[in-house]
Amino acid sequence: MGLTKAEEFTKAQNELASIAKALGHPARIAILQFLIKTKACVCGDIVDQLPLSQSTVSQHLSELKKAGLIKGDIEGPSVCYCIDEKNWSKASKVLLELFQSYKGNSCC
Amino acid sequence: MGLTKAEEFTKAQNELASIAKALGHPARIAILQFLIKTKACVCGDIVDQLPLSQSTVSQHLSELKKAGLIKGDIEGPSVCYCIDEKNWSKASKVLLELFQSYKGNSCC
DNA sequence: ACCTTTAATCGTAATATTACGATAATGTGA
DNA sequence: TCACATTATCGTAATATTACGATTAAAGGT
């Protein structure tokens, strides 16, 4: 059906999944890496860095924004995107918690 | 198009994205948490724990397996699933690297 | 006011995902 | 060998995602 039964899972599970989902595309990884690398929050040069059209990049940016990983400030005619510091560390925390909750005793 | 231009991105970016993609569904988060909690690698009781049909759970399991996060050993008529220890820590590492590469100086 | 630049949105097409029931495959025990 | 239990796979339908070009919207400069 393509329709996730989100209501059947906990809020924490849905939050974790939506963070991971936002990271689940190479273009969005590339965007994040570029935003991190160029410390100044560059705007639409992201488009120049990626092998994708302007509209596609804009869609990816809005998904990252929806997940809270980045934020965008209007700066004159262009928009300045950067990592959302607070949510970034929260995302890092919940992901790390999942990975660290496994203490390593697989039986197979 | 629904077709990701994977070849346009680096191997590392694609790997990171595919790990994140596998984590990008609440049912798969729930499965992993259940596998971690019940230290013995339970098999098909996963189906009983989730509000999804057997075939749907099987599909989620095979996606987690495809991403390398879990592995399954045939044990009699049933299959024993558990965290793939080696890949789990690798996944943890690459994700952590991404998050830690941001040192925190957002300008907006 | 007009044009240019920048970025979001709309319309669209192709493909992927999610989900289910039904069916097939595999292994155990009678 | 024959039923039974367990799990994977097939067929399917509905919805989501990815991507592009074209259009719109917003801000600045002339």
Automatic annotation (TrEMBL), chains A, B:
Which keywords does UniProt give here? DNA-binding, Transcription, Transcription regulation
The record ties this protein, via PROSITE patterns, to: HTH_ARSR_2
Q: From which residue to which does any coiled coil extend?
A: none
Domain HTH arsR-type span(s) in chain numbering: 8-103
Matching InterPro entries, A to Z? ArsR-like_HTH (IPR011991), HTH_ArsR_DNA-bd_dom (IPR001845), HTH_MetalResp_TranReg (IPR051081), WH-like_DNA-bd_sf (IPR036388), WH_DNA-bd_sf (IPR036390)
Q: Which Pfam families match?
A: HTH_5
Q: Where are the transmembrane segments?
A: none
Its name, as the record gives it, is Winged helix-turn-helix domain-containing protein
> What's the source species for this entry?
Chryseosolibacter indicus
